[in-house]
Design a protein that fits this description.
The chain is an all-alpha fold. The chain is built from four helices and no strands. It has one domain. α1 packs antiparallel against α2 and α1 packs parallel to α3. The radius of gyration is 17 Å and the shape is flat.
Length: about 80
């Protein structure tokens, strides 16, 4: 495949990943009124690394894998089987 395709794919993937992690981390920091973390996460762009560290280590209510599994159930809905 074309190397330009993979470069663009990587850039888009990192952008979406960073946006997703930043959104969750900002939501949690605002929810628990952790103003300092909110400002740091908002200003620094670390491609999701700082956000993940915050969510799994420093948030007042740490993010768990079980909570992430419930997100999957919420966002991914099973399509009914049409076999009868």
């Amino acid at each position: 495949m074309n190397p330009v395709f993979w470069e663009n794919f990587a850039i888009y993937f990192l952008f979406i990943w960073s946006l997703f992690c930043k959104g969750i981390a900002l939501w949690k920091a605002a929810q628990f009124k952790q103003r300092n973390w909110y400002v740091v996460i908002l200003v620094l762009n670390t491609v999701g690394i700082l956000e993940i560290v915050y969510l799994f280590r420093y948030a007042k209510k740490r993010l768990t894998f079980n909570e992430m599994k419930t997100w999957k159930e919420y966002f991914v809905r099973k399509v009914p089987d049409s076999k009868n």
